[in-house]
Amino acid sequence: MSQPIGTGSSAGKGRDRDGSPHMSDTGLLRSAGVRFGVVYAVLLAASAAALALFLWWSTAGLLDRQTEAAIRADAQGLSERWPQTGLRGLILTIDERLAGNVDDDAIYLLADPAMRRVAGNLERWPPIVAEAGPYYELSVLRAGIRTLVRAHRYDLPNGFFLLIGRDVQVRAQLRTLLTDALLWALVIVGAMATAGALVVRGLFRRTLANVSATASAIAAGDLARRVRLSGRGDEFDQLAEVINDMLDRIGRLMDGVRQVSNAIAHDLRTPITRARTRLEDASLHADTKEALRAAIDRATQDLDGIASVFQALLRISEVEAGARRSAFTQLDAAPLLAEVGELYDAVAEARGVTLNVSVPGALPLHGDAPLIQQAVANLVDNAVKFSPTGGTVRLSAAVRGRRVEIEVTDQGPGIRPDEHDKVGQRFYRGEAARSTPGSGLGLSLVRAVAQLHGGELRLEDASPGLRAILSLPAWEAMHG
Amino acid sequence: MVLCFVLPWAFAMAGPLISAPATAEPPEEPALTVTTDTAEYCKALSQRIAGIISGAAEPPSEEVSHLLAEGQRLCDDGRPRPGIARLRRVLLMLRPPGE
Fold first, then answer.
1. Which of A40, A108, A294, A418 makes a 20 to 30 Å CA pair with B69?
2. How many CB pairs under 8 A join A and B?
3. Nearest to A129, CA basis, from A158, A146, A150
């Protein structure tokens, strides 16, 4: 069995004053609000990091790539000179390039197999440049000032080595500035992400607190409580509307159940009490066997009446559940109506009421014949019961458009228009029907049968009297 | 409101990290000297330019003469790098077109 909100299931957790649950430190990560906040922060930080990475790649990375491309181009030019002019030509070329290096950033060093300087503008071979593969960053002195050089080693024929580099001090400073700026930006983004996460968590908690407080109030018995709408019409408002609609519907259902329970208790108390009284009276005072039997017979009739009420209730429930739909067949309702007319002709006559039956040749329907006949019989029974002596009840039917309409008209007191919607409710009895015997279930069954067949029950003022119209889809309308 | 608390904390925590250089310094070792930033190289470039001018059919332009004089003066004043930069530009201007 599920536990009510805010009772035993919330062990270990409490509730804030606004009704929202607060989490202990250990349960912090179990909080959906915290998770949303963390997801927000992580997404923001990841996006910012990706952006920073791209900026770095397209700026500082570009500077590095440009330097390396310049070194490679330089090396290719010099390597092409080697086969043509040999060592001497290469030395002259290096001197030429140094002399023409207007940008003042070129570094060359040609070394012999013993790593002794042959040409170039570095005083000696740097010991850390041991391989031809990677790029090295060297610290050199230029006019007494330490600067940074990015260099690459190339191995030449005959054991000679060539070092080509570029002074990247300015670029390194630029890269440092850029790195600092990006790191600061990441720190700010991190702070913003943290703040945003806290805000998201707060918003989430506040929004849920509204729903949670309502659920807690309802669990505590305040069934009239509803979720507040912010008026923004956003998803949370839509959710709140759905929840409120659901609560309204539950409220209506509970009212209906309460009303039916009250009606059952009220309607059955009288015949049960009457039967009990009769049996008790017979037990105490019946002098003869016949008197005792008569009392038992009357009590049995009372109990049969009670049983019929329960049977009617069960029938309505069965119809409303749609369980009878599998028994639907194609049928002609005309003979069914004629049978009802014949059945109630004698009853009407006994009450001094004239029953006119006007049924066309065929009324094609798709449905449950006994149910339809029962519904029409209920309408005729009501009409006869409420018609004054000398009055007329008309049972007629016609195919109108794609519907079959069965009308029962009487000249009784009728039903007030404001009661038309209520007479379909179980046990509801209109003002004019209070003094007439009945259970208040007849029209409930008719309405349930109509809905089961995809039709409707309409009540109209016949001036005087009531016209009840059972409108059902014709067979052609459903399958034509 | 929340930022008032978060930002100062973030800056305080990140400051020491960021103030460190972003690029790793190369390992400390006796620094290599670049030989084309010296007064000697300045003199060598001046001699090379003088050789080109003396072998030319026409006297140098006023701009070349001005740059050459300025470069030599800077080298003589103990500022070899700007001096060498000007002498390199002179060399560039003295190169035959298309070379």
1. A108
2. 108
3. A150
